[in-house]
Amino acid sequence: MPTGTAALVDQSGPFPYRPDMTTVPNRDDIPREHQWDLGSLYQKEEQWEEDLCRLSSLESEVQTYPGKLAESADTLLAWLQLQTRIEETEERLGYYAMLRHSEDAGNSENQDRLSRYTQTASRLDAATSFFAPEIQQIPDSRMEELLADPRLEEFRITLDRVLRYKPHTLTPGEERILAMQQEANQTASKAFSALLDVDLDFGEVETPEGPRSLTQSSFGSLLEHPDRSVRERAFHQFYRSFDQHKNTLAALYAGSVNLDVYRARVRKFPSALAARLFPDDVPSRVYENLLAVVRKNLPLLHRYYRIRKRALHLKDPAIWDTRVALVPAITVNNPYEKAVETVLASLAPLGEEYVTTLRGGLLGGWVDRYENKGKRSGAFSAGSYRGDPYILLNYKDDTLRDMFTLTHEAGHSMHSWYSVRNNPFQHYQYTIFEAEVASTFNEQLLVHHLMGQEQSRSMRAYLISKHVDDIVATLFRQTMFAEYEKLVHDHVEGGKALTVDWFRQTYRDLLLAYFGDTLEIPDLLDLEGLRIPHFYRSFYVYKYATGISAAITLSRRVLEGGPGERDDYFRFLRSGGSRFPLDSLNAAGVDMAQPEPIQLALDLLSQQLDLLEATLFDEDSPDSKNKRGCAGTP
Questions:
Q1: Candidate from 38-47, 325-334, 444-453 with smallest mean pLDDT
Q2: Which of 205, 219, 374, 403 has an alpha carbon within 20 to 30 A of 574's alpha carbon?
């Protein structure tokens, strides 16, 4: 079924399907029209099996190329074409297997299919791993001769990106030694995961509804419980478990940080931060600029926590009061089809092609809508070059947040749709740095649309509160994490040791700066810096903060501008992986090396806090004077 031309679901029947909220159905109980149609990848299972055999057979052909890439432009071109064919086939096979497994992980056929694909792909990946080191060993003069052949022009971006690593590539023998360390290098991360996910037992927390298991997953929801005593018990019980293992946690994180520094030095990077930013060609000043601008705006965050204190009627607010909703969740009746129409209306500023294409996908074969037994939780978008950009949801009619999830994932899918149609396979894939921009952009347009409609006071309060909470969690909290990571790595690079006490004091100093005098910081909270899984993938979380800043800036440009600003945004969507992230955003009119995009996002937060105060509190009170005229749009 071609992308964007899927037949619309017939909604005229007298008994439209609605998911039963009391039970979880089996996969076979979900109507076919509410499941995704994977026919754009494979119409029949036999086609997938044939492609898997074809992919496996290419291994022998790969073996004829090592050591020969510099022989001639003909040889190099033939290899690049073979590599592209392998990667494109791998992607198509892998996405199909992953999507089928995601729809029902308990199905043995789905398990077997994914396992067989993984085994075959792993063998091919090992066989083709010679490519980058061999290209980097070719003398510069010879590479210039090869690249002079016009037939290699379509692969120039691919080759240039491999050659960028040449100054940071060691001799073949040294590279082999480093490669042999890969499994050992995962020890700290694997041990941390085992400790958190398996060995730590947090017990149960008593609630008015009965005892609830306390886990990594349930901790967040317990901190949102309306009963303050439940929140406090959950906090102390959760962090007492970390306190009992603080020396182990500190040793594991120190091991991970020392490994980051070691790898950066071995590959001749000036710092671990520079090494992590290198693949996206992001200069360190982008990271440092984020920290500086957010630091300057911390009084805005302190204001937010004072609003929370007043709204929750708390004399002495504590850390376990920072997650509970200021406005109770709004009960809505948003059937999936109605949510789609609302999302599409909010995206009207992007024009007819975007909206029409998305309508065909969301109401046709792109989306697996509802929960079923064995289905993966949460949501994702999985775009591939030869298939539709599929979306997995666990949609519920009575949860407004699920409509935001829908538009978020639709943003990813449309990013993929435009990238596929404007780039060859070898550089259509965009980076994580860029991915969150397109999805968060859609959320900003949805907030703008909903706030522009007639809403009850409670609904307006809920929307504003949600918008504020999202910005605080994504921009402030992730930046605090990013600042902590930099302090930790700088400490090691300065020749100093990491200890439990140093970790705790450094993190406590950050907590005091970010929370100010708005609440007391309990002793155990400084252990939070030892329990964040993302820290084992260093210097990653800053992308969430830069992503929301870029999305807010772009959404303002589109909403307040004209056709030129919209064209700039589509230039970003179409660029795919043909540019580095900063270049792609620059083409859209956003310079993330400057403070303006981050400051603009923070200025929006200030406006939303004005609205939040005016909506939550008595509009005639002194606290809300002169607030009624504030614009409520991103």
A1: 325-334
A2: 403
What is the dotted CATH code of the domain comprising 31-182? 1.20.140.70
CA pair distance 128, 116, nearest whole angstrom: 19
Instruction: Give me the count of residues in the chain.
Output: 634
All structural domains of the chain with their residue ranges? 31-182, 284-331+413-634
CATH number of 284-331+413-634: 1.10.1370.20
Contact 415/575 with Cβ under 8 angstroms?
no
CA 614 to chain centroid, in Å, comes to: 33
Strands 380-384 and 212-213: unpaired
Stretch among 20-29, 152-161, 414-423, 596-605 having the lowest mean pLDDT = 20-29
Beta partners for residue 368, in sequence order:
392
Q: Considering the chain, what is the average pLDDT of its residues?
A: 91
Quick one: DSSP state of residue 196?
I
The helix-helix angle for 432-451 and 457-471 (nearest 10°) equals 160
One-letter identity of residue 491: H
Catalytic residue among 90, 134, 409, 528: 409
Number of other residues whose CB lies within 10 A of the CB of residue 126: 11
Residue 409 among the catalytic residues: yes
Residue indicated by tokens 């109980």: 29
Q: Which two tokens stand for residue 457?
A: 């006071």
Q: What is the pTM of this model?
A: 0.88
What are the tens digits of pLDDT across the range 448-503? Answer: 999 998 778 888 999 999 999 999 999 999 999 999 999 999 999 999 999 999 99
| β-bridge mates for residue 381, sequence order | 391
